[in-house]
From TrEMBL, chains A, B:
Leader sequence segment: none
Organism: Streptomyces galilaeus
Cross-referenced InterPro entries: Homeodomain-like_sf (IPR009057), HTH-type_TetR-like_transc_reg (IPR050109), HTH_TetR (IPR001647), Tet_transcr_reg_TetR-rel_C_sf (IPR036271), TetR_C (IPR011075)
Source organism phylogeny: Bacteria, Bacillati, Actinomycetota, Actinomycetes, Kitasatosporales
Portion annotated as DNA-binding: 37-56
Keyword Oxidoreductase: no
UniProt-recorded name of the protein: TetR/AcrR family transcriptional regulator
Keywords: DNA-binding, Transcription, Transcription regulation
Amino acid sequence: MTEVATARRSRITPEREAELYAAVLDLLSEVGYDALTMDAVAARTRSSKATLYRQWGGKAELVVRAMRHNKPGGIADVDTGSLRGDLHEFMSREDDCAMERNSDLMRALAMAVHSNPDLMRAFRELLIEPEMNEFQRVMQRAVDRGEVRADRPALEYIVHMLVGAFATRTMIDGLPPTQDFLRSYVDAVVLPALGVPTTT
Amino acid sequence: MTEVATARRSRITPEREAELYAAVLDLLSEVGYDALTMDAVAARTRSSKATLYRQWGGKAELVVRAMRHNKPGGIADVDTGSLRGDLHEFMSREDDCAMERNSDLMRALAMAVHSNPDLMRAFRELLIEPEMNEFQRVMQRAVDRGEVRADRPALEYIVHMLVGAFATRTMIDGLPPTQDFLRSYVDAVVLPALGVPTTT
């Protein structure tokens, strides 16, 4: 949470904020981003639209902040001492059930960004970039430990590899992303691409 | 093209078929899958709706066949003698301009499959599975040549790796997939994951 955002929402209790975000995500999964209205959010949460706009500026930021609130944070703080350990830990932050729901919500957002430039901007600034920065820290530690060479080309493609796992699993295989699947993908694709041995 | 499909459309000349498919793809990029109607296709192509339904069964199959018609085929027939050569050749089948348009169209379809089960079925049977079968042949040749071990875990994730490259590049990086980008991704991710040296 940035300082600006915290200041802006200072009059809302954390409990109330969590309640609001949960309602927004319920609406998102029920009707999708394009059909989701601030009126519906106001009605569902017994808020005034003026309050919602004052606190979040608009639909895009409200939805993206709700999404971010819902995601387990702090992957960079997990330090197991090996890249394989860190990535496996990352894949285990959510149970399979939470992961399936979040993956559905992320897909709903990813679909909508193309036709909503303000959503695209919020999605990138508040969800993708912070997550990428955390990954950079995880990768930097692996480089510092000597596990990954600093000039390894796959370092540029971590997000591409992981997005491929989620997107293909859900949209083409038609299966939910599970911890088992993601850990096996890390061992089969991500670590070998980075030149890290995967001996168990 | 299956025998059944060829028989079903035998009264249409290949030129007329190509013209129809081009019109369908234009409409798809203009209005998206959900807003695309058989009425609009009929009007744009000066066909009767009855003809369209008789020849293609419905919107899902018509759109997917149009998409397939538009894609360069026969990747398995390209045999350069090395997996790296075959994959680079695959990434060069279309020029950057055609690749960007096809990638936009594929994204439009991929977004719509979730809420259209018949589109999902046609998309999988007519686009994904044939392409995956071709990749299997390319990979099998690499295994037969001794380039890739038959039990290499990444063999199961070829599609995941490639979809990640396309999806992340267009939706998160906000950049078009280019031949240069895709070849560099093949060298950085796909070949190392498969244990193939990428010395140039």
